[in-house]
């Protein structure tokens, strides 16, 4: 197992490099880059240039002349200064080399438009995304697996029928629509004012004691988590049911029952191990999906500044350091999660030996 773990860790390096390379050149050739946006800010007026980096001479270009230059176009010198500010005075191959060199040292640079380091922005956003992703994924698995097993055992019964209807309804409701409904009902929208409307913690969080901090945290995270769990557990429940049904109908189950084992013993000693392999294989995609993509609209609705919202805003603004930094972190977490999943295979079923491959 140790040699397999080392090979997988070493494989992360070229994988990160390939993903970073593909996305670097795709983003670089896309129209509407940071230089174009900076020029647009200047042409629209001096107040719109607040998004540029502080301390730049370009931000005060309108003070040189009572007639704002945007009215008659920017001269080439100003455009050259903007390109130098964002590093676009260098050829693309040199920018790529510097990006790779900095990312090896986890130096992601500073945001073009938020005047803050990319690492600082990611660190600020991580608690929100980890909270939403971790609790949502855990609840989805803790609900879906027992429910799926129960549906497989009771296949064709009234319980299976009515639970399938509830699952279909939950699957059909988008998470963002459910989030709006929860706000209207329980966050002071039109009915009850039970839960907070925004934020991960209260404004006086630092002044609370430990127990009050725990209650305040779960008080804030409750509605966003419910919105993500309700729409996320349906597919995993049906996957669990179908996986267990396939195993229950196999010959070794009949043989185990013929030897005198009870249904519970057959289910948890033999069927469970084989059936959960398919469920475990989907964990990385489920976790990454909930952590970064599924939480995007939830973060917007509940005013939560997580990684999903950070990456979305960076793409809209063409904030390249934030785009590449968040992508780098996303990919790294995904690869590590996949590695943990493969190791979990061997814990569930010792017959699986990745090291022999």
UniProtKB/TrEMBL annotation:
The keyword Membrane applies. Its main location: membrane. The keyword Ribosomal protein does not apply. Signal peptide: none annotated. Keywords: Cell membrane, Membrane, Transmembrane, Transmembrane helix, Transport. The chain crosses the membrane at residues 9-30, 128-149, 161-187, 217-240, 277-302, 322-341. It comes from the Bacteria. It is found in: Cell membrane. InterPro entries: MetI-like, MetI-like_sf. It is a multi-pass membrane protein. Residues 126-341 form the ABC transmembrane type-1 domain. Belongs to the binding-protein-dependent transport system permease family. This is Microcin C ABC transporter permease YejB. It comes from Orbus sasakiae.
